[in-house]
Structure formats: structure tokens, C-alpha cells
Amino acid sequence: MAETDNRKQLILDTALQIFSRDGFHKAKITKIAEIAGIGAGSVYLFFKTKESILEELFIRSWSAIELCLVQLTENRILTPKEKLTEFLKTVFGLVTQNKDLAKLVLHEYSFWSSDTNQSINIIVEHSKSLLSEIIKSGCQNGDFRKELNSDYAVIFLIGGLWQLQALISEREDDLMNDNVLSDINDLVLKGLQ
Fold first, then answer.
1. Three-state secondary structure along the chain?
2. What's the pLDDT score for residue 73?
3. What is the pTM for the complete model shown?
4. Which of the four CATH numbers 3.30.40.10, 3.20.20.140, 3.40.50.20, 1.10.10.60 does domain 1-48 have?
């Protein structure tokens, strides 16, 4: 079982590199197999299509965000403002630690945001709902403006955070500066107040 999991992870890791470097549409299953050091048939044992590999990558990335938001909404100690700060830290960490994934999510927005990808869509919509719940709670307790539209705030936050990938690839040294996360946090929180 562990060898099967390792091989599947190898395929996903290799596909992520190739999708990020060459673009999803130009990537070939045969190239993924070649770089992974396995036969193309082995790839098809785990994934029926190239799209199913992309779907798995997005499910895993959005599931990490969803888990973070579930934990934050269940937390009764942190204020909504503190929860939003923790959310920003988590997403910033995901983006800066996996540049290829951040780039892929940004470039393949139409794939993961499409209604045709139900399993991804369910996770994304649940994540947006949880983030909206945190913002609404902040509006109710005075952390954020009462008249703030949480749905608009969520759209801005999700889109803006994934746009960090452009900064990561162009200005990597600046992102390693501890002030960047602090600046993003200030921008978001002051904008919501």
C-alpha cells in the first residue's frame, strides 16, 4: 500500500512541476511518466486523464485551506480578527512553500472554479462559506464594519491571496522578508474595519 501511495504521490509531484513549467494544456502524460521514471501505463493506473491529475492537485490544495477554515470556525477562543490573521498566515505559507502549486492554481483558475468540477467546487464553496462566516462574525462583534458585504470580501481575499504567486515568482527575496505577511495582514484587516 505504501509503495502505491508513493508512486501516486510521485506522479502528482512530477505533474505539478510540468504543469507549472509548461502549462497544463502543453503537458503530456508521456513526459510526466518519463520524468517520474515510470511507464506511461503506470500513470493511467492511478489517473484516467490528465484532467484527473489536475483535479487531484486542486482537491489537495483546497482541502488544506478548507481544513484550516474548519478549525478556525470551530475555535471559540480566537476573535474573528485573529482567525482571519491565522487564515492569512496559513494561505501565505501554502503559497510561499509551494510556488508551483500557487502558479498552477492561478493559471488554471477556470478549471478549479468551473461548476463542472463538482468535487473541487464543493470544497471551494465550503471554504468560501467558512471564510464568510468568520467575516460575518467579525461584523457582528465590531471587529469589522457592520455594513461590510462578506461575500465580496471573500472573493477579494481568495483572489488576492492566490495572486501572491506573481510576487513569488518575480520577487522571491521580498517575500522572504517577514514584513510582507505583516503588510498583507494590515492591508486586509484595515480594509475590513
1. CHHHHHHHHHHHHHHHHHHHHHCCCCCCHHHHHHHHCCCHHHHHHHCCCHHHHHHHHHHHHHHHHHHHHHHHHHCCCCCHHHHHHHHHHHHHHHHHHCHHHHHHHHHCHHHHCCCCCHHHHHHHHHHHHHHHHHHHHHHHHCCCCCCCCHHHHHHHHHHHHHCHHHHHHHCHHHHCCCHHHHHHHHHHHHHHC
2. 96
3. 0.83
4. 1.10.10.60
